[in-house]
Amino acid sequence: MTPAQTTRLLPQTYRPLFAHADFRRLLPALAASDVGDGMSMVAVAWLAIEIAPPGQSGMLLGAALAAYALPGAAGALLLGRWLRRLPAGRLLVADSRIRAVLLGCVPLAWAAGALHPVLYVALLAGSSVLHAWGNAGRYSLIAQIVPPDQRLAANALVSSSASASIVVGPALAGFLAAVISPAWLIGLDALSFAVLAVRAGRLRGASTGTGGKKKEKEREEAQDAAGPVGAGRSAAGLHRLRKQPELLGVLALTWFFNFLYGPAEVALPLHVTDDLHAGAGLLGLYWALFGAGAVLGGLAAGALRRFPLWPVTLGIVAGWGLTLVPFGLGASAPVTLACFTLGGLIYGPFTALSYTLFQERTPAAWLTTVLAARSAALLTAGPVGTALGGPLIALLGPRQVLAASGIATVVLAAIGAAVRVWGMRGVRAPSPG
Questions:
Q1: Helix (H) or strand (E) holding 411
Q2: Taking a C-beta distance cutoff of 8 angstroms, is the pair 380, 70 a contact?
Q3: Residues 6+ apart with CB under 8 A from 326
Q4: 367-379 and 233-242 helices, crossing angle to 10°
Q5: Inter-residue contact 233 to 84 (CB < 8 Å)
Q6: pLDDT tens digits, residue range 112-136?
Q7: Would you call 267 helix, strand, or coil by DSSP?
């Protein structure tokens, strides 16, 4: 099937995106790395369980999942002095190269019999150190490639591609885990990032981010005029966010949303092994069905632009929480698989809506910095939640932790709605005098 025929199969909303050559070239590489990460959703957890000392699988699992993301927050805050001037394309390439090298060391160490749990956590931590900047570079690059009126569609397509990889990646990992070690699946993830590094490095705008040295110089001058420089560039991004209450509110809601999701990510693999007495195939099926729902939900994001942001986002948060409650009620695997699928459908539009809002409300010269600050803040949420998941599972058990995560998420949505209503009343109330 030719690219033109493939384009005609897409909904009308997404067809104009493929008129941009750089977007056409970048999307398959992003999809490849997303499939690799989809396999790692199963492989990282499964390998941690395999190499953990007896009785410590929950603790190592939480540490491994936290290490795969948390250092990115430190990298965003500490490396801003050196990375803030790099164009979006270079940031994406640098992150992809580091991930390719360090994740590639995991199967090599495993094959040599030297994959100690400490080394495993260290390699995962090193691979994520530029994650915030790489993620910011990804969406800043998209904002540069496509016109403003096509950004929501582009974000929705990219996030849907990531969701589709959750269908393919975990299912593929669950199938391959019966044949090869999960360490080799992490090696395939490393290979996918090598592909992304090569493809992103060949984009016309990858070296400058805007298509030429003159424009790059103008971008740097605009950044210098926009705010403070120095070591606190990411801190400056957070400072700018504090001046925009709506963006700050979305960031706070997303942080707590991700934090409450963290324990569930640790509990699900142990629920499969301890409660259901099943293998990696069932864990892969959970994530595959979640991804299938998220693809459909993500592609529907373009139609949600006509609705107010806050009711939609709060509804997404509450809906996801409700889908976790049946785990604690002792529901059977088919029922919880259906709930996870519905959870993916509900969650699907969240990422695209959030990134589009940030792209629209942030000046172009500040976009990469603000998105890096956003990623830095959010990268602390999930890992803290996953680190908390290990002790909670030891205390309550996997099934109860999943349900508790869902109930707390519903409470978060209720608190967010109350704060939003209170804030709106404060804006509408006449000032004294």
A1: helix 398-428
A2: yes
A3: 335, 336, 339, 403
A4: 90
A5: yes
A6: 999 999 999 999 999 988 877 787 7
A7: helix
One-letter amino acid at 174 equals G
- DSSP assignment of 116-178 equals -HHHHHHHHHHHTTTHHHHHHHHHHHHHHHS-GGGHHHHHHHHHHHHHHHHHHHHHHHHHHTT
Lookup: tokens for 187: 């090696």
Residue 367 is which amino acid?
L
Q: Which two tokens stand for residue 2?
A: 């030719």
Tell me how crowded residue 385 is: count the other CB atoms within 10 A of its CB: 25
Q: Which of 326, 311, 296, 315 is nearest to 402 (CA)?
A: 326
Which residue from 396, 420, 385, 7 is spatially nearest to 250, judged by alpha carbons?
420
270 and 58 Cβ atoms separated by less than 8 Å: yes
Confidence at residue 118, expressed as pLDDT on a 0 to 100 scale: 92
Q: How far apart are CA 143 and CA 364, in angstroms?
A: 9
With a CB cutoff of 8 Å and minimum separation 6, the contacts of 243 are none
- List the one residue out of 246, 354, 352, 339 whose CA is nearest residue 293: 339
Nearest to 68 by CA among 401, 284, 382: 382
Distances (CA, A) of 415 to 272, 313, 324, 408, 424: 32, 13, 19, 10, 14
Whose tokens are 């939003």? That residue is 420
User: Which residues make Cβ contacts (< 8 Å) with residue 55, sequence separation at least 6?
Assistant: none
Q: Which amino acid belongs to residue 218?
A: E
Length of the chain: 433
What DSSP element (H or E) covers 3? helix 3-9
What is the tens place of the pLDDT at every residue in 91-114?
A: 889 899 999 999 999 999 999 999
Q: Are 130 and 72 contacting, i.e. CB atoms less than 8 angstroms apart?
A: yes
The amino acid that residue 393 corresponds to is I
User: Mean pLDDT in the chain?
Assistant: 78
How many C-beta neighbours within 10 Å does residue 343 have? Answer: 24
Pair 296, 348: CB distance under 8 Å: yes
